[in-house]
Amino acid sequence: MNTRTLWIGLVLVTLLSFSVLLFFGKEIYRLKPPIPEKVVSDSGEVLFTAQQIKDGQNVWQSIGGQQVGTVWGHGAYLAPDWSADWLHRESLTILGGWSESEFGLSFDKIDKEKQAMLEVRLQKALRANTYDQQTGILTLTADRVQAVNGNAAYYAGLFMNDPALESLRESYSIPANTVKEKGRMDAMNAFFFWAAWACVTERPGSELTYTSNWPPDPVIGNKPSAGVVLWTGFSVIMLLVGVGLLAYYNARNRSDVIDRSLLPQDDPLGGLNPTPSMKAVLKYYWVVVGLILLQILTGVITAHYGVEGSGFYGLSLDSIMPYSISRTWHIQLALFWIATAWLAAGLYIAPAVSGHEPKFQKFGVNLLFFALLVIVLGSMAGEWMGVMQKLGLVKNFWFGHQGYEYVDLGRFWQIFLFAGFIIWLFLMFRALWPALTKKSESRELLILFSIATVAIALFYGAGLMWGRQTHLSIAEYWRWWVVHLWVEGFFEVFATVVAAFLFVRMGLLNIKYATTGVLFATIVYLAGGVIGTFHHLYFAGTPTAVIALGATFSALEVVPLVFMGFEAYHNLQLSRATAWVKAYRWPIYFIISVSFWNLVGAGLFGFLINPPIALYYMQGLNTTPLHGHAALFGVFGMLAIGLMLFVLKGLTIKYRWKTGMLRIAFWTMNGGLMLMLLLSLLPVGVLQTVASIKVGMWYARSADFMQGDTMETLRWLRVIGDTVFAVGSVALALFVVGLKTGWSIDKTQKLYQD
């Protein structure tokens, strides 16, 4: 297939995919769950107002938001899903009241027939939509008002300082007085009520709730819809069809036979003389290594909160570093060091490719470096101040904690980071421009590299599309543009292009083959990845068409990942093709591991949770971090390390490396990650899923279930994988430090002359 056809295909796929994504985004705006102007009792008493609900969303965000349990299944995995928990408690109160008044016994004491009768009545009462679209008033019955007030009192005690709930707070890792003011607590209760109401209230003219019957809870009538089951089956069919077609394409067009006679006998990069701006990139990797170690430390603390809710091996930490902060920093630091490693690699590659060092390029590289430091430290400080309730709701939005997972940093820091990406884009293009304007065989690959660079810089701007009191469904739509589309879409493309480019520059890969291969891979990635964004939004107050689209195209996302084994094998062959390539063995091995984790983490574990029926029962369970850890670190983290090592090799090209620490780092980081997944996250997630299917989501997330002996044992088993992984991270850090001190370099063996 010629490149012209592939370019046309890429343009068409991009335009069509984004058209669909934007059109149904408009439908989400139109069909989102309404926020009532007033919530009143049938006697006219005002319980909540629209402004209270909106302010309550901001209060929830300020304490960590999605880092403290989940709402609609999105967020942290310690503490309940507040929507599911609220509905369960509300239903118990109503059923208990009816049972006492009619039979003189508690609900659990009456026979099954009477229980079934009351549950049917409950479902009719809860699922009925009593919202008046004309007046904007939502009316509740007296029974429900009593339950709502009971829930409000319970949550006030939990998030403030009821001594009777101290043990439960510890199980949930929620410090006493997380919410310090009654007014704030009242507002957050209003938000929790509204989020739960949307989960159980049927849309007008439909038998499905605003969240498509999520969370699973048979007592309130929340069961999977026919569409959820139907589109699950269709997604499996699409996966099989996609795999078949791609297998056919690969069989016809791919050859893994390497003609060693055509490969360079000497290292083409051996004569590379780094420019001043390329040398200035080195300091980025010092920061990367530091952030990796800090991320691991916060990860250890975060994981330990699951077994010792208020401390770390007896040391009380929750008063100064609550779970919501440690988890925020753990996730954010991962994004920061991965992004920093990638940005640094781009800044190194651009002048290397073009052979052009623009004026003041080194100054720009240094300026961006200090800007990134300010963003990292400033955003972390702001998040801590927000969670510790030291900021008002408006200041918290701008400088504190936004409460949305992966994009927790305040709006000011978001804008600052976006500006940093724009600076990076400017630095990249001024260095690449001579090569882009020159007709050469590599020009098309350079254009792809440039497109990916533009996409990475600009698409982060999707994180600026919501405001302080934007409706939760809308905020989730744009948030997943960043988390899925930006990271899993364009980062994936960037990764593919960069890996191909490195092999081309080393003379190990034919430029024509690389260009067509990358173009085709980009088409396949975007064909599924753009619309596949919707698989995160099945149950986020979105129309049912989102389930159909998300299921279909997320299955297509998996298709190219199935063939990552071929990619890994091909890259392994390249690493053994000539004697001089051995100097790049470990950078190449880290890139090979990316293919493995793409297959396992993004492909296998991703498809485990992507089908609608699977996610219906699994959303918000430990099957999600199973996929998240394997994909985020296994794919993007390993690639970041591989790119870092390639750059460091270029900066120390004259001498042979002592690779003992790299060997330890590679095997222990990959092995530790696998142990973490298989010994802890996977079995915990599977057991939670069984509980979710049998009883309901509220039970799968409850303290009674999660603090049981089996679960506690499985959580402790994570220590094994975490420890092995930490050893690898320290080994990597020691190696990088050793490049500066000299203990990682064998200066007795000079590979290339000056």
Write the layout of secondary structure elements.
Layout: H1 3-31, E1 38-41, E2 46-49, H2 50-62, E3 70-71, E4 74-75, H3 82-103, H4 112-127, E5 131-132, E6 137-140, H5 142-159, H6 166-172, H7 182-200, H8 226-253, H9 276-280, H10 282-304, E7 311-312, E8 315-316, H11 323-354, H12 361-387, H13 393-399, H14 411-436, H15 443-459, H16 472-505, H17 511-529, H18 545-562, H19 564-575, H20 585-609, H21 612-618, H22 623-651, E9 655-657, H23 660-694, H24 697-700, H25 703-706, H26 709-741, E10 745-750
Parallel strand pairs: 1-6
Antiparallel strand pairs: 1-2, 3-4, 5-6, 7-8, 9-10
Helix pairs in contact: 1-17, 2-7, 3-4, 3-5, 3-7, 5-7, 8-18, 8-21, 10-11, 10-26, 11-12, 11-14, 11-22, 12-14, 14-15, 15-16, 16-17, 17-18, 18-20, 19-20, 20-22, 20-23, 22-23, 23-26
